[in-house]
Write a structure and sequence with these properties.
two-stranded antiparallel ribbon; TIM Barrel; Immunoglobulin-like
């Protein structure tokens, strides 16, 4: 069963503009199945659960506010308690979260902020800099608002993208992709997710004021699609465990759903009677067949970590036969823009 999720948003409990009910309502209008609220250094208990058909997950985005700049933000889902007291030590924070069965994703792990944005608006880059940590679940590889910040080379760019926000979304930063691939090549299977980092604030440029990125718009953009092993039961805790297991295993892909809903996308590999999907490992029994299918036509690329593109196809299907072991993922482009990026399949 496929679920469309966005696991990174904020409310008035930290620096967002809305309440949890506003986030859930926007998620429902955007067609999400699961939405996560991850307020900064505050965990709000008692709200996780179903609201109509949307499952609200309440997590936390933890960082050390005493560190300047305030780098090393961690998205924590499923701890069920406050963990901001561990923020001073990124490794201790990760260890504490994992001891409680939580998932930990390094938020906006690579980030850039143009000089004028830093100098005039006090908006620094907030990447993850302590790369020696271990035990985390994965990387928030594509963060919508981080990409927006990086694209604002001048105030004119800010105005342009405020008027045409869909045009700044091009994909994860190449530096983040390289880090992610290197983790896998170093036997660290980091799961990639995408998130909105939604705040819902209004912005002013002279007399002009508007909510530049409403929750609903962001929830229609960069999302994480996951494959759970069976349908959800509308039991919040049991369903969270299924979602957690799917994310932990990497049965997921990231999509800019503004380019078209990616519901129904699949990427699989099989050899003999053995089969694997995203996040899985396939032991070869001869040649390996790889297949990706997409709901709308696009340019499909099969990429081998450390080697680059090994196959391409235009249309709604890519098929590739190989005997080479390696770590393989898929990217799909529509109109020259990245639409889908998958977690990999390891072939051994």
């Amino acid at each position: 069963m496929e679920l469309v999720c966005n696991l990174h948003s904020h409310t008035r409990f930290s620096d967002g503009a809305g309440f949890h009910r506003d986030v859930v309502a926007a998620a429902a209008r955007a067609g999400l199945d699961v939405v996560g609220v991850t307020d900064h250094n505050v965990w709000v208990g008692g709200l996780q659960g179903y609201y109509d058909r949307v499952l609200l997950l309440v997590g936390e985005e933890v960082h050390d506010p005493c560190r300047q700049p305030q780098v090393n933000h961690a998205l924590i889902l499923g701890a069920g308690q406050e963990l901001a007291m561990e923020a001073a030590s990124p490794q201790a924070l990760i260890d504490a979260a994992r001891e409680r069965g939580a998932l930990v994703f390094l938020a906006h792990p690579v980030e850039f902020s143009p000089r004028w944005l830093r100098d005039r608006l006090g908006e620094p880059a907030l990447p993850w800099v302590d790369r020696g940590v271990t035990g985390f679940t994965g990387l928030e590889l594509w963060n919508t608002m981080s990409e927006f910040k990086a694209r604002l080379r001048t105030p004119l760019h800010a105005l342009y993208y405020a008027l045409f926000p869909q045009r700044f979304l091009r994909g994860p930063f190449p530096e983040a992709i390289r880090w992610w691939e290197q983790l896998w090549l170093s036997e660290i299977p980091a799961v990639a997710i995408g998130g909105a980092d939604a705040h819902g604030h209004a912005y002013a440029l002279g007399p002009w004021r508007r909510v530049l990125f409403p929750y609903e718009w962001l929830f229609r953009a960069v999302n994480t699609h996951i494959l759970v092993d069976r349908p959800l039961q509308r039991r919040p805790e049991a369903d969270w465990l299924r979602i957690r297991d799917a994310l932990q295993a990497g049965r997921a892909w990231i999509a800019n759903d503004l380019l078209g809903s990616s519901r129904g996308f699949r990427f699989e590999a099989y050899s003999g009677h053995r089969r694997a999907t995203m996040g899985g490992t396939l032991r070869r029994a001869g040649a390996v067949h790889m297949e990706a299918t997409v709901p709308f036509p696009g340019e499909i690329r099969l990429i081998r970590f450390g080697k680059g593109v090994v196959a391409r196809s235009r249309g709604r299907r890519l098929q590739h036969l190989t005997v080479e072991p390696g770590i393989y993922r898929v990217e799909v482009y529509r109109g020259g823009r990245l639409w889908i990026l998958t977690n990999p399949i390891r072939v051994i």
